[in-house]
Specification:
CATH topology of the largest domain: Rossmann fold
Radius of gyration: 16 Å
Strand order of the largest sheet: 5-4-1-6-7-8
GO molecular function: phosphoglycolate phosphatase activity
Strand content: 5-15%
Order of helices and strands: EEHHHEHEHEHEHEE
CATH architecture of the largest domain: 3-Layer(aba) Sandwich
Distance between the termini: 13 Å
GO cellular component, one term: cytosol
Shape: globular
Structural class: alpha/beta
Helix content: 25-40%
Number of domains: 2
Protein name: HAD family hydrolase
InterPro entries: HAD-like_hydrolase_sf, HAD-like_sf, HAD-SF_hydro_IA, HAD_2, HAD_sf, PGP-like_dom2
Keywords: Hydrolase
Length: about 210
């Protein structure tokens, strides 16, 4: 296995288990906006893309609706947690000298309220969020922004994520992709690596 100088993480479904928060709140928003109760599996496409894009695909986007979704999602904050064992592994990676980053479709205010309190921010030097690029996953722009800020060689970077959107973003930017099987519900046949547990992240490092 190749060893990487930079390991970049998606957040939702990779670092943090946010599925209950995202889907339960979206079910409620769709119900409020349309009167329809959609099954959760029909809303799983929203995992891994910006909230605005998800609402647009559902035909119910407005800034007011997006703000309302953020408000409802905040009420599910207690259901969000770091996947077991990940904080310890991330600390080990940081101690080994590996450079760690985040590329996420989260908006900055959502990230600050729901994700930052989980306690892993201190390990990440660069955090790319939805406001940092005009195009978003599955486009390569967020990863290209990470490469621009760090000056990293794409060949020395691996992106760890749980969706096809993540894989497409990584591949289009010329970096390797590792599927986080602990949080992924999708088959991602083009993944360079398939990591079964957080401990498998340690096989990607230069140390």
């Amino acid at each position: 296995m190749k060893h990487f100088e930079h390991i970049v993480f998606d957040v939702d479904g990779t670092l943090a288990d946010t599925e209950e928060s995202v889907l339960s709140s979206l079910v409620q928003i769709v119900q409020e906006e349309t009167g329809k109760t959609l099954p959760r599996h029909e809303l799983e496409f929203a995992l891994g893309i910006p909230g605005k894009d998800a609402l647009e695909k559902l035909g119910i986007y407005s800034q007011a609706t997006l703000d309302r979704w953020c408000q409802v999602a905040a009420s599910f904050k207690s259901t969000i947690s770091v996947f077991p064992g990940l904080l310890e592994v991330i600390a080990t990676l940081a101690d080994s000298g590996c450079k760690l980053g985040i590329v996420s479709s989260r908006a900055r205010d959502e990230y600050a309220k729901e994700i930052a309190p989980l306690g892993f921010d201190k390990y990440f030097e660069h955090i790319i969020l939805v406001e940092d690029t005009t195009e978003h996953k599955p486009a390569p722009a967020p990863m290209l922004e990470y490469l621009r800020r760090t000056g990293a060689n794409p060949g020395n970077v691996v992106y760890v994520g749980d969706t096809v959107y993540d894989e497409q973003c990584a591949t289009s930017a010329g970096v390797s992709f590792a599927r986080a099987a602990w949080g992924s519900h999708q088959d991602i046949p083009n993944a360079t690596y398939n990591l079964k547990t957080p401990n498998d992240l340690l096989t990607l490092t230069t140390k």
